[in-house]
């Protein structure tokens, strides 16, 4: 039988079994010592309603009156509030009073998650995971994910993939268990017949840029989670799977897969195409060259797989409500309210001061717990790395040590990419020794994570109550200068990588006080002078600046200024800004970068200005700094302790924010 013959097979119906709502509270009687007041009787504070009030006499001797200070017994506030609430809503507190407090389980208290279906019989939470698996199966059937297929013997030439269960705990932001999850996935690693698998994701720098704009223009940020997102997309080729464990008797041995179930190699691509098509139907257009970002005259929508965020001005709430209704009609979504978390990043907002902060304290705690990095210490490193150029290892290769080091550095890459530019150069240094790390490399990685644990409350933030920040220049006159709305900084360290003599380079871009884009890396080619190294770094930063200019144009953000890139090398600045100071070099690639930069500056598309090294915010992206300089680098990045920043406002004078035309 050919695969085309299977669509005539019957649809599957939802399975029956134990109710998934057995854990919900039932109506219970009042707790001991509590009863409803008689109907029609209301509390009267003006009269004496005591049960033995007739025995109380006003003729009381003064010898029975206690004089001076008396110490009252502490009140039972919970009983008081529950009793008071009973007068307002007699049925609500009854359940709370009659139940014992619920115990919350932390991730550190839980056993390991089961790996296979057969492990559920011996697992302490096996019954809960089985309930979750039935809910997952019914969800797949409800979305027409499966159809009963022909016999295996009639599909000899067809590719049949096994299904497997993935059991996980779901935790809240503090690490407490709130849900048991059973995910049904396809063994995509065994898939032979597949086409294009690329699915774009939202860049971290785009997310930070939109957060900075939301702070500056006081935009509302609403978040949605699409439930079982991949199952909304249909497969574009016949695919067959074996029945998942535990449900063979109810579903049969073989199923035809109709939807993009998790695990398929092309499932992310199919879901991405489905979501982008839906957003276009709802009246949004994709921003050219920026995947996962859509906009129109009233809304900005960005997403990462199944997490969708809508940015909207208060005056466009009517347009947003219409979009909300259309999105709910298109998908089974869960509305999460105002944006609080995104990809494990905590979003802290102070509307009164128009500030938004991004931090990853929860991720740092998770890594510390996973690798047993002590958090009880009162003394932590002041810098993420003591010395650069650790050097290659002379120790014998150790597979276990290599894996540990790669995991530590890989976790460091995630946090250095999203919210902590202060460890970007540290990650660049450590990532050069991934092949055969020694014990000194592992110790350096642990050192970096101990620094992050000690500084886990540092957050990058955007300031919307001003469009620029006033900073001290360090001059003898004590004068100050004002940072632009948007600017970049470029730096290089000439031939600092001893094994290859390549130069480190880094760039940084700030928008409304928040670092939105940064990079610390080695240059691809060896240069022959500091000027050449700085020139290549400046060219890389200028190319990135052009990409930002295009994005601002597409989302209608008018900064009303020529964007500036700062460089701390006077000769390099002169090479690209002065007509007579041309660099004569026999390196063709350097010469090409030089001519391009001179062209962009001459045409007025970018501005290159000099800034002293002690005020260069990109200095810490090219070298490992000592304690005092690193503290200044952190300050220049705008990293602040969230507790301090939310309690103390910075009084900075600045002009009005730039205009956001068309859609704001």
UniProtKB/TrEMBL annotation:
Domain Reverse transcriptase Ty1/copia-type: 158-380
Start and end residues of each stretch annotated as Disordered: 1-58
InterPro entries: DNA/RNA_pol_sf, RVT_2
Protein name (Swiss-Prot/TrEMBL): Reverse transcriptase Ty1/copia-type domain-containing protein
Organism: Pyrenophora tritici-repentis
